[in-house]
Amino acid sequence: MVNIGLTKVDDALAAKHPGLQSYAACQSRAFMKGTGTFILCAGGLFALQKVLQRKLPYPLQWNLLISIVASSVGSYAVTRWETQKCSDLWILLETGSVPDRSLPPPPPQESKPEVSEGTGKTKYGDAME
Questions:
Q1: Contact at 8 Å (CB) between 34 and 79?
Q2: If you average pLDDT over every residue of the chain, what do you get?
């Protein structure tokens, strides 16, 4: 059995996906980086706002709200970035190729059919009076 966190994965499944343990470790690391980012960012922003509060006084509830919201956004960004790297690692371990994360090309522009004024028919084939 392979342990991933508190759950045990069957040996047959672990043999089918040899990169499972590496992927689980990467995901765990990504979530811990996100949690650490939240804690450090919230503490740092709270301290910074306490210093700034001498010149611009505002209630403590706004100080906490700004710190928590900003650190949540930062934590989400870090966790998303690290999770994307873990997904790329999983695809590399499973397929042997690195996924292409470049932006897809824009769809081709559709040309509008030209309707001449003298035909008497619309582009749908209806007769015009």
A1: yes
A2: 82
